[in-house]
Amino acid sequence: MRVALAQMSSGPDRDANLDRMAATLDRAADAGAELLLLPEACAYRGAPSPGLVEERDGPTLSRLRSAAAARGLAVLVGGMWLASGEEARPYNAAVFVGSTGRIVAEYRKVHLFRLATAEVTEDEGEYTTPGDHLVTVDYRGLSFGLSICYDLRFPELYRSLARSGADVLCVPSNFSALTGAAHWEPLLRARAIENLCYVLAPAQEGVGDDGFAAFGQSMAVDPWGRVLARAEEGTEFVTVDLDPATLGRARAALNAPNETAPAVYDRPVARERADG
Q1: Where do the CN hydrolase domain residues begin and end (predicted)?
Q2: Higher pLDDT pick, 276 / 61
Q3: CATH number for 151
């Protein structure tokens, strides 16, 4: 299956962002993609704005559903504000739209970004309601596990997705440029290696309207931890072909995900003290 990973520099103008997403979808379809993955904050990137929180029949999903159906490819809307019932704290949700335009699944970001440094102070929990469940989507012979950005730092989430049968781990992101230089690639490759899954991570780049600098470098990683594609600055999208046989070979060679010992991990840890 050919997939396309979009790289965006979304801003505060939702209509402009939607125009770009629709154009990218068309070009990805022309390139043979069966699935387009959009990054977190694809429809709007900026300061919290209750007026831009959407319902499921709002402008972003309505337009992308029509575009997906017209071109016959699925779309993962990597992260957008959807109403939660608490006006000031919507969900940050990834929505999987099938190739017929039907909304198939909605994943609500579980882990909310927090960073406190001299350069950046951010607490996503102040304006976002966290999700409380995990989601996989079966599409054309592969199972896609959904996550968003900061979730990447929590390996337990991905192990749960893999145990549920995920073949591909999706990590749409608006990853901080400050932490991304050191953490982005190692974490993506680690999640692939730990779970023997493909990892697909479309990303935002550049500085948003709120001053937040995103790292970019949308990336696809194979189940052995090899980087298959990396988007340079200004790249609209990259494509990669997912091969079930590659998954099979990796999992036949290394059975580590099935050799965990939770009964041992749950026991109290022995704490000894050496002399001196």
Answers
A1: 1-244
A2: 61
A3: 3.60.110.10
Question: Among 69-78, 188-197, 233-242, 251-260, which is the least confidently predicted range?
Answer: 251-260
The active-site residue out of 42, 54, 106, 109 is 109
Mean pLDDT computed over every residue of the chain: 96
Dist CA 42 CA 151 (whole Å): 17
| Contact of 3 with 237, CB cutoff 8 Å | no
* Domain assignment present for 267: no
Looking at residue 89, its pLDDT comes to 95
Instruction: Classify residue 274: in a domain, yes or no.
Output: no
Q: Does 40 qualify as catalytic in the annotation?
A: yes
pLDDT class of 194 with cuts at 50, 70, 90: very high
The tally of CA atoms less than 13 A away on the side-chain side of residue 139 is 27
State yes or no: is 149 an active-site residue: yes
**Cβ atoms 108, 92 nearer than 8 A:** yes
Instruction: Give the tokens for residue 83.
Output: 């109403």
42 is catalytic: no
